């Protein structure tokens, strides 16, 4: 047999925990690394370090619990056999009676009985001192209770392990680790998830859920939450957005996604927003970007995309802004200028990118001559605004048409022929053209 060595570190721990006094440790020959008294190992009541760690490695905690349970039962059996023989029973009869006792003790104790000093079952409270001394009448019950406690602990361990493994899939096992103390606290397995979701780190990681609930939306499960984050990221990657839009911070939090989650933005809606920005602005004619930056001076291409990613702006509002910029871009393409307020008025009147390009092309073809004629004949100024009213059928379109017809009529009367603004584009009287 290998030498039995006492372990000072284990002895210090046992003393600190108050499990044994220094005198008791010395009386037992010291404590081994496995936690047994040296004398118990020598007499076969405890495991050597080699046996203990070998058993732990091969059978885990369950195997150690089984050994300790058997060891305690053997010690109690020995005491009971000794008491029975002192009462006159033979060794064989005492051993059989002790065996029968342990087979039936748990059930008897559940029925409200205890064991008297003769080993008989009597109603609780009538036996004086028990079979194992003054406090031992409930010793077998304690063993039964210990088995139940072990079972409950195993259930709590299982609940913890399940949560840990689930969150480890997302790299979030650190959220679960603080719950380890619940395994020995007596908490029910169902409390683990509740406690987890009440913890501050969890609330921080899944912070959008609080805002969702406040807005009347359902709270997302951890799997749903993370799946949406992954889908948002996939959309942004496919459209080539800088990784700053979806960079991960502490606990994998992607700050830019919180507003999407809070606003119940689907990946499809997010893609529509980004597509709107790229197809209609970044990939459009340069005049559109120029107009957008003219109306919103500090804007950059990243800001243009940011407009589309801001959940506070509904998608239609985003498109209205871009349409306004497209109208300004159409004016620039035709060599004209228009301001933000006027472009918004045109957009509100139903002018689109296409009708703006056509209309400003028409206006550019006759504006200069119309302005000259109005000046020559002393008429009210013929301006771009006047032309826009007629071309885009705005308020004042009738008056603008009459003004254009009057100056073209004066030119014809003067020169006896066609007016410079009465042919081609300026001869048409329908909306979108002269």
Please explain how this structure is put together.
The structure is a single chain. With 434 residues, this protein is mainly alpha-helical. The protein contains 19 helices and two strands. Strand 1 and strand 2 (121-123) form a beta hairpin. It starts with 7 loop residues before the first helix and ends in a 19-residue tail after the last helix. The relative contact order is 0.04.
Concise structural overview:
With 434 residues, the protein is mainly α. It is built from 19 helices and two strands. A two-stranded antiparallel sheet has the order 1-2.
Supply database-style keywords.
19 helices; two-stranded antiparallel sheet; mainly alpha; disordered C terminus; 434 residues
**Could you tell me how far the N terminus lies from the C terminus, measured between alpha carbons in angstroms?**
113 Å
**What characterizes the major β-sheet?**
2 strands, antiparallel
Total DSSP E strands: 2
Based on CA atoms alone, the radius of gyration comes out at 45 Å
The dominant shape is: rod-shaped
**Which structural class is indicated by helix and strand composition?**
mainly alpha
Q: Write down the secondary-structure element order.
A: HHHHHEEHHHHHHHHHHHHHH
Question: Count the helices. How many?
Answer: 19
What is the helix fraction of residues, given as a range?
55-70%
Instruction: Tell me, rounded to a whole number, the average pLDDT.
Output: 77
Strand order of the largest sheet: 1-2
Strand content: under 5%
Stretches where pLDDT is under 50 for at least 5 consecutive residues are 115-122, 126-147, 422-434
């Amino acid at each position: 047999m290998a030498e039995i060595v006492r372990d000072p570190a284990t002895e210090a721990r046992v003393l600190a925990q108050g499990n044994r006094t220094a005198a008791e440790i010395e009386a037992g020959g010291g404590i081994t690394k496995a936690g047994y008294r040296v004398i118990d190992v020598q007499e076969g009541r405890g495991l050597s370090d080699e046996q203990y760690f070998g058993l732990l490695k091969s059978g885990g905690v369950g195997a150690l619990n089984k050994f300790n349970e058997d060891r305690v039962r053997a010690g109690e059996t020995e005491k009971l056999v000794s008491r029975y023989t002192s009462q006159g029973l033979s060794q064989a009869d005492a051993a059989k009676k002790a065996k029968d006792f342990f087979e039936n003790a748990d059930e008897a104790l559940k029925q409200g009985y205890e064991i008297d000093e003769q080993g008989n079952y009597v109603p609780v409270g009538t036996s004086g001192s028990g079979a194992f001394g003054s406090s031992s009448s409930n010793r077998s019950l304690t063993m039964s209770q210990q088995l139940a406690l072990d079972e409950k602990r195993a259930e709590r361990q299982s609940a913890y392990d399940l949560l840990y493994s689930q969150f480890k899939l997302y790299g979030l096992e650190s959220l679960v680790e603080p719950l380890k103390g619940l395994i020995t606290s007596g908490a029910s397995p169902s409390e683990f998830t509740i406690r987890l979701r009440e913890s501050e780190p969890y609330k921080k990681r899944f912070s959008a859920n609080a805002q969702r609930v406040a807005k009347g939306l359902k709270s997302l499960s951890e799997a749903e939450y993370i799946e949406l984050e992954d889908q948002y990221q996939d959309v942004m990657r496919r459209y080539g957005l800088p990784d700053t839009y979806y960079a991960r911070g502490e606990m994998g939090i992607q700050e830019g996604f919180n507003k999407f989650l809070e606003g119940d933005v689907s990946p499809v809606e997010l893609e529509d927003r980004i597509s709107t920005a790229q197809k209609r602005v970044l990939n459009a004619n340069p005049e559109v970007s120029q107009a957008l930056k003219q109306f919103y001076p500090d804007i950059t291409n990243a800001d243009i995309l940011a407009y589309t990613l801001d959940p506070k702006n509904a998608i239609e509002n985003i498109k209205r802004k871009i349409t306004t910029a497209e109208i300004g871009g159409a004016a620039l393409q035709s060599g004209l200028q228009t301001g933000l307020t006027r472009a918004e008025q045109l957009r509100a009147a139903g002018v689109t990118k296409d009708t703006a390009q056509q209309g400003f092309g028409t206006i550019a073809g006759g504006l200069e001559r119309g302005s000259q004629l109005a000046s020559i004949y002393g008429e009210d100024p013929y301006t771009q605004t006047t032309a826009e009213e007629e071309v885009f059928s705005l308020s004042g379109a009738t008056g603008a048409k009459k003004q254009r017809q009057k100056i073209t009529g004066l030119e014809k009367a003067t020169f006896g022929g066609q007016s410079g603004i009465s042919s081609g584009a300026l001869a048409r009287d329908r909306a979108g053209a002269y």
